[in-house]
Amino acid sequence: MKKTLRYLKPYSGTVVVxxxxxxxxxxxxxxxxxxxxxxxxxxxTNAELNEASKRNMIIYLGIAMLxxxxxxxxxxxxxxRLTVKSSGNMTHDLRYDLFSKTCYLxxxxxxxxxxxxxxxxxxxxxxxxxxxxARTLRLGVRAPILILGxxxxxxxxxxxxxxxxxxxIPLVGIVIYVITKKSVPIYFGVQKKQDDMVRKVQENVTGxxxxxxxxxxxxxxxxxxxxxxxxxxxxxxxxxxxxLSHPLATLILNIGLVxxxxxxxxxxxxxxxxLAFLQYFVIILNAMIALSKIFVVISRxxxxxxxxxxxxxxxxSESPLICPxxxxxxxIRFENVSFSYNGVKDNLRDLxxxxxxxxxxxxxxxxxxxxxxxINLMMRFYDVSGxxxxxxxxxxxxxxIKELRKKFGVAFQNDFLMAASIRENVDYGRNLSDEQINxxxxxxxxxxxxxxxxxxxxxxxxxxxxxxxxxxxxxxxxARALAAYPEILVLDDSSSALDYETDASLRKALNKSGGDxxxxxxxxxxxxxxxxxxxxxxxxxEVIGKGTHEQLMDSCDEYKLIYSTQMGGENA
Length: 572
Ligand SMILES: Nc1ncnc2c1ncn2[C@@H]1O[C@H](COP(=O)(O)OP(=O)(O)O)[C@@H](O)[C@H]1O
Ligand SMILES: [Mg+2]
Hints:
By secondary structure, the chain is of the alpha/beta class. It has helices at residues 2-5, 12-44, 51-104, 107-113, 115-139, 142-157, 159-206, 208-213, 217-267, 271-312, 371-378, 401-405, 422-427, 434-443, 447-452, 470-482, 500-513, 526-529, 549-555, 557-567, and strands at residues 332-339, 348-355, 360-365, 386-391, 394-395, 408-411, 488-492, 518-522, 534-539, 542-547.
């Protein structure tokens, strides 16, 4: 919570001015009953004053009451504005940091938090923190001043009546305490259900095509409906409990009012004083109810703050290892690498290979055999569990993440394209020259269709680039990977949607333009990798074949099998 609250520090000036205004407003409000009492006790019912001076005094005191009301109103309005401003600014900064931190989380951390949970931390949790700060600033000062000031003034005016008032307050306190204590866990339940709903929405939005293809729309709608109903039920439960507090407090309030009138009548208390007491009573009780609401908001907000801080505290900048540089001259070297995502089963076992600058590494194998895992480790999205990986003869753990990633240009199979122009998608914020972009478009074999689009490079893609075909999307992604002349080009299953002819032209273009670029090509098709300098045949995390196409045709039965199935009807 401390860390979150520190975000308020830059706005402490605004906060302090706001609180001072709140204080002035609250004090002005406390003066009203005093003035009223004075008018009734000392002016209106005073036999020694004549009518004219009575009238004059009532007018002056009336103006003073109006002034107090105005001060209370204005103080509150302006303070609330400042509060909204400072809590809004604070939430903005918090979200900004949270978002940038989220972007820098490593893949293992993202797996741990879970994407839906990261989304709700960025959206609903930061909203709850905002509500906590805003409400606390709005009522956190005002309510205690009203309670404390009201009680002190009441004692000053009439200690006996004040004792009656004080007798009722603990009752209200108990009611509010019990209700709040009951409702807080229920609110946490609501929060959890909201998370579930966000997760469901996210799953459905990302999986909308599969859902449609499998005609599971009804099934998903039912599932969603169930979640929404559960959420509504939970909210209903919370509100049912919370809604008790107001009527119960009002009941106690009314009993207290009656008690004050009765005791006042017995003791012959002046009517103005009784009236002032009634007002203090209402002010104090309302302040107590307001305070109870703050407690709910605070418990919800602090739970959210804790969730946010977990992300903010995640350690993303492990200091690079200090390792000696070798002089093998390898571009990429895997040395007995093993890796497991969950620490239970190895997803990669004892993998070793060397690739020299300008060479091409081909990786082939069934889905789930560990091809992308090799890429993930090479780019250090995850750290190896055993062995070591060297890029340019340096352990990948000895690079800063930025330095390492700069060496790569990557296109993943289902990579995302932004809803922006083709140019912006290829450039991706790197301020590339037109020449670089056009070269990349050419090499990626995208020229032909880009020129036919309205506006060419300025053609706007819709969300997820759904106005392009699968093969066209892949070519834009390849162009993006190529555009900054990376040292290592990684194409992870990213030419699968290209026809054989385009795929072949792409390979030719890469060989021609990217002579000194090292290439890592993951493919399902032998034709895409057959000219590679080294081919790895993967099966369930293990290399079952390693060598050039010719060597594998001699030595690896599985490779031969894939070859014969794929080459049955086509020529590569
Ligand atoms: N983030 C992850 N968390 C846990 N397991 C994963 C993760 N990513 C991949 N795997 C598992 O690792 C294995 C290899 O996956 P992957 O390298 O993506 O296969 P390929 O790219 O060959 O299709 C699969 O069994 C897959 O289920
Ligand atoms: Mg893969």
